[in-house]
Design a protein that fits this description.
Number of strands: 0
CATH architecture: Up-down Bundle
Radius of gyration: 20 Å
Mean pLDDT: 83
CATH class: Mainly Alpha
Shape: globular
Largest sheet: none
Oligomer: single chain
Number of domains: 1
Low-confidence stretches: none
Length: 405
Amino acid sequence: MNKSSSQFLDRTKPPHIATLILISGISALSMNVFLPSLPNMAAYFDADYALLQLSISAYLGFSALLQLIIGPISDRFGRRRILLVSMGVFVVASIGTLLAPTAEIFLVFRMLQAAIATAMALSRAIVRDMVDEARAASMIAYVTLGMSIVPMLGPVVGGLLDEMFGWKASFGVLLVLGLLVWALTWADLGETTVNRPTSFKAQVREYPALLTSPRFWGYVLTTAFASGTFFAYLGGAPFVGSEIYGLSPSELGLYFGVTGAGYGLGNFLSGRFSVRVGTIRMIVMGNITMAAGLSLQTMAVLTGLGGALGFFAPFLLVGTGNGLLLPNSNAGMLSVRPHLAGTASGLGGAIMIGGGAALSALAGAMLTPETGAWPLIAIMALSLTGSFLSIGIVIRRNRRLGLSV
């Protein structure tokens, strides 16, 4: 059933694509806008950098746990009310980050901000509610193309805000935007889940068909490993930029924008060509593009060519590869059992973000001025290898079932 027709600010109909872009965008902004401020935040709270780095990894870990619950609940009770409650928690938590007197209390509220991560998972499920698999990959790509502007500009804006007003300015912006997007969601997002399970017990009976599907796990692991390269980068690149290359917060923010630009390009290409080329071919192309970027980065660090630019610029290709891969792997994951799209999105998002939290923390813990960037490069390379192997599972299974590859 195609429920893609929508009218802006009509709560009785599916949301406008602009609403989905903004819902996903604030989730992405919450993840990265403050990254250039991490060294200054550590100084403000008189805490180790490794402790403040938990504002990334702990946030991601809590996001993962939350999505395990939110996906099934949204299949049972609907997307709209879950999103509104989650955004309300995010607003309250944002106030807490501004008032926190210690690093430990700050981290508690930072973890609660992870409630907004449900927006990213449920926006994908809403797309799958509205359109079929082929169009879902394209529509998800356009939604994430719009939100790719956020990770491209977020660190840039965050770095400038830090230098002008201090690190709290970024969290003030998150508070204001959280209120605005909550109001937009209330006004525009109509419920999209129509064929809900008759009971929670009936819903649970459907889980084995999803959880025992090799194709589902192949798509999930491809998504998790490919995005793991990005999450490791989030955890380690601020240290590399500030401690190894001596970048200021605003300079670091500009370099982070390179990844967002690549991600935007990849999503644009996915939106244009996913229906024509096919999801699996787009995923393979994404992995190859990321491998090219990591290879260039490795050579730059090995030779010292380009300094900070040599380290950060190749992530234009890594971001592009992520943009080619993720909309298609997400669409594949949600289409194994379309009526459990929320469950699939929540579980897939939990594994992706949980793995990302672990990689982010690992990168932050392993990096020292003596090691240079090498631990980060090694973690990203291993994660990308896992993505290549995981899509191989889907390809083999599709061939066995006589499906297209």
